[in-house]
Amino acid sequence: MNGGSLGLRTGSYGLLQNINGAIAGGGISKSLSNVRKSSTKMLSVIREKERPLPNAWYRYIGCRKFSMLLLIAFALLVFALGSFVVNKDSTSPNVLQRIGTLGIVPYVNGGHHEASQILGEKDKKKHENRFQIPAFKGASVLPFRHPCVNFTFPPPPPPTRRRLGPRPCPVCYLPVDQAIASMPSSSSASPVLHNLTYVLNENPIKSEPHGGSDFGGYPSLKQRNDSFDIKESMAVHCGFIKGSKPGHGTGFDFDESDLAELQQFHDIIVASAIFGNYDVIQQPQNISEEAKKNIPFYMFVDEETEAFMKNRSILSSSKRMGLWRIVVIHNVPYSDARRNGKVPKLLLHRIFPNVRYSIWIDGKLQLVVDPYQVLERFLWRQNVNFAISRHYRRFDVFVEAEANKAAGKYDNSSIDEQVDFYKKEGLTPYSEAKLPITSDVPEGCVLIKEHIPITNLFTCLWFNEVDRFTSRDQLSFAIVRDKIMTKVDWSINMFLDCERRNFVIQSYHRDLLEQMPPPVPAVVRRPPALPNTRGKTPGKRIPRRGRDRRSGSSRHHKAAASNRDRNFF
């Protein structure tokens, strides 16, 4: 109810009073005429009061051409503001050339969300400072500001649109040429340890009840403890305990032609392995011509996997399969295929004594980012010499052990024995007290490493734990890392698992792939055929009765529906 209507009601009440007075005076027709004139006059006055002031804009807004001009001007303004924001946030046209190799996938990672509740402000500050350009020894000159300095993760989607399970997240990679230019020209300094040699023993004897193998040499507990006392020169057990050199009469043996090639110098190699015909070889993608020319890709297989590949005619005499150079292993040291896979995974520095950097990926993974970009992102940019992703959900060894038992990864008694042993050595559940260490449990399917004495020692001692206890290397990672870090100033880059999933795609093992049903072919829907009316003479339709009429009616409706469907298609 507005003010004008209130005034109208007031006027109407006054008019009624005038009418009553006119009736009492006997001048009804005259009074009614006066009333009609006064009411018309009052309504016009009220409408004039309610009408807003005239505005010249209304005449233009009603014009269609003027409205289109306004819309175009508004669109240009929005475009200009958007361009300004983009230019402000980026310092190079190639800043985000390789963000999200698998596509920009909404970042949903339960493990990161869970671990981020523990990291606190220390890890946040570390994340903020990670883009400072490190002073590499002999490194090429880099820009003052790294092109990825302003890169941040996109906000997670709302809970209603959140997908379950781990997913890749965007990663800012440098272009390949810039990544190559940022590679250090000389090796990093190894803290404390400068000279590392390896124990050889032609007749190893098991002297203690704990596990071990002839390949590993059965190091005693005293020898194990001494290996964590970091000195300038050290000799430790590191597999290949027999023979003159790794792969020659040591177990895990190579052909003579392969031995010669493995001794060659390379700046970078990529390596993987399949034992027991357990996986399907995945060809790398998005590899630059520079990497194809300068970085060899080695795939280690046992004789069982080799025989399968030959039967399927996928392995030629050249021992090449796509980018992979196939290296056949003879006299594998273990009956467990997964334990055999730990030899090249953790002891690449023994197989390739003249290599600077290596990227290890499990046989079920497909590399989809150039190796130069991976090394720049996770080693050179961080000024570290070893990188591994943390587990996407679990970051506590004790929780990981229970998960392994629940999933039947290994027999429960062996897992309990290993965890109890580490507990007596001082291993505690993960807490904020370990910051800036962000996790005790790695997702160990990818290792990015510079081959220097301290990292070689770390993987040697990690292998010795796998050889002594269970083959679940996630359980022994933290105890070896922590013991070394208490002695020397050294750290590991444990990056997010969603970042790992950005540069490798995970496939299923062969046994699961063979159990999966074949894909169902797509069903092609075709429009129904029109009813055949040929041979029928037009004429008067004979009416049907009863049941015949109903069936004929239903056929008529079906034909009409078919015609509608045909018109729709």
From TrEMBL:
Keywords: Membrane, Transmembrane, Transmembrane helix
Domain called TOD1/MUCI70 glycosyltransferase-like: residue spans: 196-509
Pfam families: TOD1_MUCI70
Keyword Magnesium: no
Basic residues: bias regions: 537-559
Spans traversing the lipid bilayer: 66-86
Region entry Disordered, spans: 519-569
The protein's name in its UniProt record: TOD1/MUCI70 glycosyltransferase-like domain-containing protein
